[in-house]
Amino acid sequence: MVPHLITALTGPINELEQRVIDSMPATERWFRLEWMEHTPPFYTSVDIRNAGFKLAPVDTNLFPGGWNNLTPEMLPLAVQAAMAAIEKICPEARNLLIIPENHTRNSFYLSNLAQLQRIFNMAGLNVRIGSVSPDVKKSTVIELPQGESLTLEPVVRTRGRLGLKNFDPCTILLNNDLSAGAPGILEDLHQQYLLPPLHAGWTVRRKSSHFRSYEEVAKRFGKVLGIDPWLINPLFGKCSEVDYATQQGLDAVQVQVEVVLSKVRRKYKEYGIKEKPFVVVKPDNGTYGMGVMTVRDPKDLETLNRKTRNKMAVVKDGQQVHDVIVQEGVLTQERLNGAVAEPVVYMMDRYVVGGFYRMHPDRGVDENLNAPGAAFVPLAFDQSTHMPQLGARPGASAPNRFYMYGVVARLAMLAASYELEATNPDAEIYD
Ramachandran region of residue 217, left (φ > 0), alpha (ψ -120 to 50) or beta? Predict the structure, then answer.
């Protein structure tokens, strides 16, 4: 159980939980058939919000960086999933090269790399870490807080292959979301497997495309469960050609905010929900929780001060924001040690391998928690989330609740699979 988590096991979400548990055989069969038609992303993490009346993903990351937050109890599942993923892609694989983010001095991020290295080592691979950053010119040993060390090496490009000095991998794992664009050194690697592919990076990927795919998945899954897809789907709209500095396009964002808010109001009225609806305005691409704002009234956008506009205008790696997504805000009813929290579910291949709670003592129930000051607490449980208790009363079983989180996370992963297929530049087209 989760001794210090309050409200995770209470509230109207119980009805949804009951439906999910009752329909478990149909759910698992449905996923199984989907994975026969579609390829899951190599690894995925999904931020989920439990409002008590709805449960929905709010962000899907295809280059997850928090593997160090998984507990030792979760590692066997991760290793098993890594084995399955590698076996499917390159069964004879011997060497794996991990390409990290260019700004690798953050000790938490480095611990994440060490954990990834450990997982793939145990899956039977020689693993080394090679940087594409021009600043890394020689092999560097970095000491980590837990007494571990990490060796960062400069990559070497030869013809159609990427590797390190005296290290030729058959598979390259990107742990770099390519926010600043795909470096030329990663292009045209036709002799090696690059995972995830370049078009999964933020150079190409858009959140609006992802949630459009998710909307389709939620509708289809809603029919399996016999539920309103809105209970698992955040509504959204998109705006292009926005310039926060000159305030160009903010009137279009206002309109979109009002459109989404009015749709949410109708749903709240339908379900008798007394909460005040809100939306979250964020960049259509990019990560790290940058450029995110909670809006309760379209008029709020008329009075943005310069500081807020500057904060909204730039995201990771200094990239300017021009396209934004206006997403239905989903409250979080979860509390950990008195702080608001949200579950983050980690997957590899098509399997849920673990997760953690992101908590933030200085943020409210309607705010973005992926911000400086956030802390991470593992999803600690006595029983496996893969073994839900079929006869348990709704809201009384931690494995059941976490199983439901895993179902919603897998729906988001399936949507990412749809999305990657649609944007694949090398896709075969059949007339």
Answer: alpha
3-state secondary structure the chain: CCCCEECCCCCCHHHHHHHHHHCHHHHHHHHHHHHHHCCCCCEEEEEEEECCCCEEEEEEECCCCCHHHCCHHHHHHHHHHHHHHHHHHCCCCCEEEEEECCCCCCHHHHHHHHHHHHHHHHCCCEEEEEECCCCCCCCEEEECCCCCEEEEEECEEECCEEEECCECCCEEEEECCCCCCCCHHHCCCCCCEEECCHHHCCCCCCHHHHHHHHHHHHHHHHHHHCCCHHHHCCCEEEECCCECCCCECHHHHHHHHHHHHHHHHHHHHHHCCCCCCCEEEEECCCCCCCCCEEECCHHHHHHCCHHHHHHHHECHHHCECCCEEEEECCCCCEEECCEEEEEEEEEECCEEEEEEEEEECCCCCCCCCCCCCCEEEECCCCCCCCCCCCCCCCCCCHHHHHHHHHHHHHHHHHHHHHHHHHHCCCCCCCC
Under a CB-based contact definition with an 8 Å cutoff, are residues 342 and 358 in contact?
A: yes
Tell me the backbone φ, ψ of residue 415, rounded to 5 degrees.
Answer: -60, -40
Q: Please say whether the beta carbons of 253 and 301 come within 8 A.
A: yes
Q: For 137-189, how does the pLDDT look when each residue is reduced to its tens digit (9 = 90+)?
A: 899 999 998 888 999 999 999 888 999 999 999 999 999 999 888 888 999 88
Q: Which two tokens stand for residue 65?
A: 């960086």
When pLDDT is cut at 50, 70 and 90, the band that residue 3 belongs to is very low
Which domains, ranges and CATH numbers included, belong to the chain? 5-64+206-422 (no CATH), 67-203 (3.40.50.11280)
Q: Rounded to an integer, what distance in angstroms lies between the CA atom of residue 104 and that of residue 106?
A: 6
335-357: per-residue pLDDT in tens?
887 888 899 999 999 999 988 88
Residue 293 · residue 280 · CB < 8 Å: yes
| Amino acid identity, position 178 | L
Q: How confident is the model at residue 135 (pLDDT cuts 50, 70, 90)?
A: confident
Q: Which range has the top average pLDDT, 91-95, 263-267, 378-382?
A: 263-267
Whether the model pTM is above 0.70: yes
pLDDT digits (tens, 9 = 90+) for 397-416: 666 778 889 999 999 999 99
| Both structure tokens of 368 | 């973005």
Q: Which two tokens stand for residue 46?
A: 């999904």
Residue with tokens 């790399």: 113
Q: List beta partners, residue 248.
A: 243
